[in-house]
Amino acid sequence: MEYITLNNGIKMPLEGFGVFQVPDAAQCEQAVLDAIASGYRLIDTAAAYANEEAVGAALKKCGVAREELFITTKLWVQDASYEGAKKAFQKSLDKLGLETLDLYLIHQPMGDYIGAYRAMEELYKAGRVRAIGVCNFYPERLTDLCETVEVMPAVNQVELHPFFQQEKALAVMKEYGVRPEAWGPFAEGKHGIFTHPVLTAIGQKYGKSAAQVALRWNVQRGVVGIPKSVHRERMEQNFDIWDFVLSKEDMAEIAGLDIGHSEIVDHSDPQFIKMLHSMKTPD
Hints:
The structure is a single chain. The protein is α/β, with parallel strands linked by helices. It is 41% helix and 13% strand. It is built from eleven helices and ten strands. The protein has an eight-stranded parallel sheet, with helices on one face. α4 (113-125) links the parallel β6 and β7. α2 packs across α3, α3 (82-96) packs across α4 (113-125) and α7 (197-206) packs across α8 (210-220). The two termini are 35 Å apart.
């Protein structure tokens, strides 16, 4: 495992385990236990995933010291306000069974996210969370936030994979010292990523799969990856990316796969925005 240093000096694993779309409590708890046993130390959840309690149950049983783990959760749209963020933060801590959090993120750039971020700055200064950041903040939103707040976001979690590489977004993040983190590092299976001829051919040179190449490509760009799987064997394969290095030629070939836009979500679609506002997290 390799680590990166965030803009406030704390270290964050360069690869973690995500639990998006694993709402079943028993399955989620077992998946997190398997992930930690496989070597993962960064666990990424969210209030909107409806599985914080299952993650918390796994953390209690995993046998790994709390200080060795890096736990992330996220603030949902319904709580995007100053007071809402403080209440939601405590609710998430209670569900996770934790006294402090490693990283707290605004899940979507919607609602009163500036007010929410002000509350998060206070939580950070009080030592209740080690780092704060955002998700899905495209360059113009991230720039506005960074020009407005006192504490620079440490992380921006956005869609990043070989078919949507977001070089402009990465450049803006670098300008402000914000670390990129990739959700959907496998493009949710689109473009036949697991058998894609370019990724497969590159992987054959190193004895690696197309999925491992996709993950390695991101970490070599300094992007934290959080692949998800409920299968132990696949978790272990996704974690086995530290014994090879893609060449400049490999990186350039993968760069040619970029289509320049998302095929998963469209944050500029008014109907999508309305849908996110209508979604409510469980009590």
